Structure formats: C-alpha cells, structure tokens
Amino acid sequence: MQTTPDSTLIEQMMAGDEAALSILYDRYSAMLFGMLMRILRDKQSAEEILQDLFLQLWRSAGRFDASRGSLPTWLLVIGRNRAISRLRGKSNREVTEEEDGDYANGFVSSHNVEDEATRTELRGTLNAALNKLPSEQRQALELAYFEGMSQSEIAARTASPLGTVKSRVRTAMQSMKGMLAGY
Amino acid sequence: MTDRHANPDDLELYALGALEGEDRLTLKAHLKTCAECRRQLASAAQTASLVGLAVDPVAPAASVKQALMARVHAEARPAATQKTLAPVRKKRWGLRFSLGFAMATVILALATTWLWKENQRHRQEAARLGAQLEAARAEAAREGEDLRAVAEVISAPDTLTVTLQQQAGGPPGQAHVLFNARTGLVIYAGQMPPTPEGKSYQLWLVPTQGAPVSAGLVEPNQQNGTVLVRLPQGLSPKAFAVTVEPLGGRPQPTGPMVLVGALSS
After folding, report:
1. Both B90 and B141 in a single domain?
2. Closest in B14, B19, B61 to A47, CB measured
3. A154, A171, A175, B40 - which has most CB atoms within 10 Å?
4. CA of A46: which chain B residue's CA is closest?
5. End of a domain among B155, B181, B213?
6. What is the torsional sign of CA B222, B259, B204, B196?
7. ipTM confidence
8. What pTM, to 2 d.p., does this model score?
C-alpha cells in the first residue's frame, strides 16, 4: 500500500483532520519513544514527552514546510531537547526549542524515512556506522547526545582535555556523515 | 569573530547542544549573520538527529495514544486554526452574550477563512486542487456545525451560566462560561493578565465526581474571541476553573487556580 506522504498528512491536520495525526503518531511514535526511553530510562516521563510532542505537532502543523521532508527530524530534535531538559532538571535548554525547531525545519532531509522498511534499513546503517567509530569517539558522541553533557562535562567524565573532546565529537560526526553519504 | 567563519569543532558541538560558555555565545552571534555557517550547522544538526534514529524503536502503550487523541479531540482544532468566535452578549442572563452578534461575527470569521483559503488555493499546484476543494468543503461543514452549536448553547433552556472570579492572592481577572451538559458544549469568554513565560491558561470542568476534565487552553484576553469547546456529553459539573499550567497544558491540573466559578446548587 502506498504510504501517504507526511506533507499530505500535515495539510490534512491543518484542516483539523484528527485521523491524519493518528497516522503520523503510528508512523513515528515507536521511533521517538525508543529514543526517549534511551535518554530518560523512565516510562512515565517518556510517555508524557511523547504525548506533548504530538500535541505540539497538532497545534503547530502550519509551521512546517513539509515538502522538505523535515518532520521526523523535527520530532527527533524537539523530542530529544525535551528529554534532556527533563533529565537534567532544566526548565529550558540553552539552545531553545524555538531555535531547534527552526534548524530542523530549515534543512532538507536527504533520507526518506516515511516508511518503516526504510527506517529499519537506515537504522542498520547508522548502527554499523556507530560501531565503526573508535570507542572514545562514540563515547563522547553518546554522552553529548543521550545524556546531554556539555563539552566540559564530557571532558571531566572521560578525563580528557577539552580540545580532545571537541575533536573526538567532530571526528565522530564527520565519520558518521561520511559513512552515510552513499546511502 | 562574528565576521569570520566559525570553528568547525564548535559547530558540531553546538548542534549537539554541548557547546557552552563564551564559545557558544560567540557562535550564536555569528550565526545570525553568516548563511554559510548556518548551512553547515544545519548539516551537523541533521547528522546529530540521526544518532537518535539509531536507537531501536519501542512501541509506547496504547493508552498514550488514547490520551493524546482525547486531548486533541477536546481541543477540536489545532491552535493555529482554533475556532475563535466573537464575543456574544445575552441580556437575559446578565452576561455579555448576544446570539445575533455572535452569529454575525461567526459569519465574518467564516468569510475571512474562506478568503484566506482562496488566496492559498491560488498558490497551490494544480494537482492539489481537488484535495484542497474537498478539505474546504469539510471545513465549511465544520464551520456550519459550530454556528449551529453556538446558537443551540445560547438558546437552550438547560444551558448553565457560570461566572469565574479571581482568587485571593491571584492575578486579577474574570470569565464567563456557558455550558450545556446535554451537548457537551462550552462557550468561554474571559480576561486575565498575560501568562508567565512558558505557561498557559487552561480551562477545566470540575465534575461532581471524578477528576477535572480539560476544556482546552484559553488566551489571557479571550473577551474579543469567545472559544467554543466540545466536551463529552452528560458531564455533571460542580464548578469551572482556570489554572496556570506548563506551556501547552496538562492532562490534569498541576498549577494554581486563578479563576473559579462554582455552580449554584
């Protein structure tokens, strides 16, 4: 069966179609909930953030330029920000959600992850890319992404100089980008 | 540094939210004026977001979706297009609700919506015209339903009227609610000071038994745009209240009550 594009569903949501939101929830909730659980390790908190995330999507559907394919990225960015804020007991992250939302909406997704099979395939590629990273690079990347640590916190945790942390994170990100380039 | 390109290391860390202190402030200022660095940041942010996609998916409990859809249904529409109906005046109840004025302004709102749709339609690709026409028809049908609903609430003999008053020590304000238990329809109009940053005002129906039921978010100054909310039919309220909640509202009240109106028994 043909997958209804996100852009069509967002237009339908703007017209007040609750069924369109239901489809988008079914499409992306497990992806998001997995990430939220990995960050928070608390089911109730993850459920609250997941629900709030889709409620915001319903209320703010008009903000998206859905033709650019940025919806899953927007969901991942905002969901991660909220989870890290909750994890670290902050009411607001230094990088605000508004700003992050603009980033997410500002770039064209090169990966079409609207169907489950593609997401599964990309997930395998991503994990392979992460597994190929040297352990210290992967650790720095994961401490930043999943625990929301700052550069100095990562340096303290890994007993590494700040400059080393910066270069590890950058090298890890560049390596991942390179490994995904041909995808 | 704002006129020189950013340190690439900093861009990657910024995308992850890990850049801090002076480095972060400097980069943030630079980004406002440098399109190239914004492009590089977008690329880094996209790579960063993929880290989250690498995690194995976990299906949330079905109750999460049920609660979400209930909240969405209670709001009836996305906030961006939430029905905002003009103030209504009803001398019979001593409140500022008027059926004629409400109908006229609702028709004006319908006309405005229609004009907006027309403008949008001209910008769309030809291939989308059919789908948009269908959406416009559905929208018009919903507008008609709301118009009939407003008329019914105002004219029904079993409609309850409640005045919500400010609480001791709380911000000044007042609101009026019309509620019809048979249809579940709520009309709200009120005025309060702006919410604190990151907060929303949320309207609640407090039933005679059980937990409060959300009637959605309300604007601080809702006098110039009355809100129509659809709640489940048959609720038996003992009061209506407005609380201050985290932005976007909560399934159950967590913040202080700023307006309360009890029903006379």
Report:
1. yes
2. B61
3. A154
4. B60
5. B155
6. positive
7. 0.87
8. 0.56
